Amino acid sequence: MSELNIIIASGNAHKVEEVKSILSPLGFRVTSMQEEGIGIDVEEKGQTFEENALIKAHALSKYTDKIVLADDSGLMVDALEGAPGVYSARYAGEHGNDRKNNEKLLTELEGIPLKDRSARFYCAIAVVYPEGGEIVVTGKCEGVIAYTPQGENGFGYDPLFYVPEFNKTFGQLEDEEKNKISHRAIALKNLKKILEKRKEREGAS
């Protein structure tokens, strides 16, 4: 079967490499929109991660005849009724300022004991086909918000997201460890199963 092209609606090099590592063995040629010479800025106005992923995927699909993949992910803290949620990247008011976002999260959780600091990273991935079909899959990873940042790896809330089974935060995990349990890795593995079945059906037809 010929190679299929997937364009990722993201400029995050980490995301691009993670998607490539999981989907390339299936025969997909995975590229970013920057590699394809497409520069668009999509306003994420959805109320859920799934809505935002679909918004981004459909926006990019207008500029290409290839399969488009987009994800939206964030942190959901139970003691904060699911916040920061879809506002994770701009929780402190400035998009992508990890330090300020982490500082605000710790301030909001001040005085709350560890047993009540349960949280999860959540990821929704949307795939839109040129003919208009779409797929949405999700993944999540459970953890606890630590009292102080720990570790220099990763990005975003990783230094605060403590995973009891590893006795480490995401910021302390090596990429290989994190990519086995992360919300995005789980969502991608769920997507991989669907794409494998689709390719099998197409190959049999």
UniProtKB/TrEMBL annotation:
Cofactor: bound how, per the entry note?
Binds 1 Mg(2+) ion per subunit.
User: Out of the domains of life, which is the source?
Assistant: Bacteria
Q: Where does Mg(2+) bind?
A: E43, D72
- Which Pfam families has this protein been placed in? Ham1p_like (PF01725)
Question: Which amino acid positions bind substrate, per UniProt?
Answer: S10, G11, N12, A13, H14, K15, S73, F155, G156, Y157, D158, K178, H183, R184
Coiled coil regions, renumbered to chain: none
Query: Which biological process annotations from GO are given for this protein?
Result: nucleotide metabolic process; purine nucleoside triphosphate catabolic process
**Cofactors named for this entry:** Mg(2+)
List, in alphabetical order, the Gene Ontology terms for molecular function in this entry.
dITP diphosphatase activity; ITP diphosphatase activity; metal ion binding; nucleotide binding; ribonucleoside triphosphate phosphatase activity; XTP diphosphatase activity
Q: What is its EC number?
A: 3.6.1.66
Q: Which reaction does it catalyse?
A: dITP + H2O = dIMP + diphosphate + H(+); XTP + H2O = XMP + diphosphate + H(+); ITP + H2O = IMP + diphosphate + H(+)
InterPro entries attached here?
Answer: dITP/XTP_pyrophosphatase, ITPase-like_fam, RdgB/HAM1
Task: Return the GO cellular component terms, semicolon-separated.
Answer: cytosol
Q: Which residues form the active site?
A: D72 (proton acceptor)
Q: Which UniProt keywords apply?
A: Hydrolase, Magnesium, Metal-binding, Nucleotide metabolism, Nucleotide-binding
**Family annotation (Gene3D superfamilies):** 3.90.950.10
Protein family according to the UniProt entry: Belongs to the HAM1 NTPase family.
Binding partners and assembly: Homodimer.
Q: What does this protein do?
A: Pyrophosphatase that catalyzes the hydrolysis of nucleoside triphosphates to their monophosphate derivatives, with a high preference for the non-canonical purine nucleotides XTP (xanthosine triphosphate), dITP (deoxyinosine triphosphate) and ITP. Seems to function as a house-cleaning enzyme that removes non-canonical purine nucleotides from the nucleotide pool, thus preventing their incorporation into DNA/RNA and avoiding chromosomal lesions.
Looking up NCBIfam families in the UniProt record yields: PRK14822.1 (NF011397), RdgB/HAM1 family non-canonical purine NTP pyrophosphatase (TIGR00042)
What is the name listed in the Swiss-Prot or TrEMBL entry for this protein? dITP/XTP pyrophosphatase
